[in-house]
Design brief:
The structure is a single chain. The protein is mainly beta and 131 residues long. It has one domain: Calycin beta-barrel core domain (Lipocalin, Beta Barrel), CATH 2.40.128. The chain contains 2 helices and 10 strands; from the N terminus they run βααβββββββββ. It has a 10-stranded antiparallel sheet. The relative contact order is 0.22. It binds myristic acid (MYR).
C-alpha cells in the first residue's frame, strides 16, 4: 500500500533530469534539497495527496485513469493521469508549454517508495522513506 507519509531520502540523477526539464542551476540546487514529503491516502480508485516541500504545500485528489492538471513548483503546467500497472502507479503527463511527455512511476520496494521520472530520454529517481 502507498498509504502514509513519505519523506525523500535520496535522489538519483535528479539534477540532470531537472536540467533536461529546463530548470536553472540555482533552482536545481534548491530543488535537490527540497525536503519533499508526500502523504498518500488511497480509497478505491481515488488518491488524496498532500505534498509539502521547502517550496510549497499543496493538496489535491486524483482518480486513476482520469486526466487532471498539475503545476510544478516553478509554475510549469502538466496535464495527465495515473494508472495502476500491477503494484506500480504509472503517470503519463504532458507539459502544456511544449507538448513533451514526462513519465513517472511510484512503486514500493522493500520499505521504500521509489518514484522514477523520465523526460526526453533522461531518467531519475527519488527514494522516500516512511516518516
Ligand atoms: C502527483 O501525484 O504527485 C502529482 C502528479 C505528478 C506529476 C509528475 C510530477 C513530476 C515532477 C518532476 C519534478 C521535475 C522538476 C523539474
Amino acid at each position: 500500500t502507498f498509504n502514509g507519509t513519505w519523506k525523500v531520502d535520496r535522489n538519483e540523477n535528479y539534477e540532470k533530469f531537472m536540467e533536461e526539464m529546463g530548470v536553472n542551476m540555482v533552482k536545481r540546487k534548491l530543488a535537490s534539497h527540497d525536503n519533499l514529503k508526500i502523504t498518500l491516502q488511497q480509497t478505491g480508485d481515488k488518491f488524496h495527496l498532500k505534498e509539502s516541500s521547502t517550496f510549497r504545500t499543496v493538496e489535491f485528489e486524483f482518480t486513476l485513469g482520469v486526466t487532471f492538471d498539475y503545476s510544478l513548483a516553478d509554475g510549469t503546467e502538466l496535464t495527465g493521469s495515473w494508472v495502476m500497472e500491477g503494484d506500480m502507479l504509472k503517470g503519463t503527463f504532458t507539459r502544456k508549454d511544449n507538448g513533451k511527455v514526462l513519465i513517472t512511476t511510484r512503486k514500493i520496494i522493500g520499505d521504500e517508495l521509489v518514484q522514477s521520472y523520465a523526460y526526453e530520454g533522461v531518467e531519475a529517481k527519488r527514494i522516500f522513506k516512511r516518516g
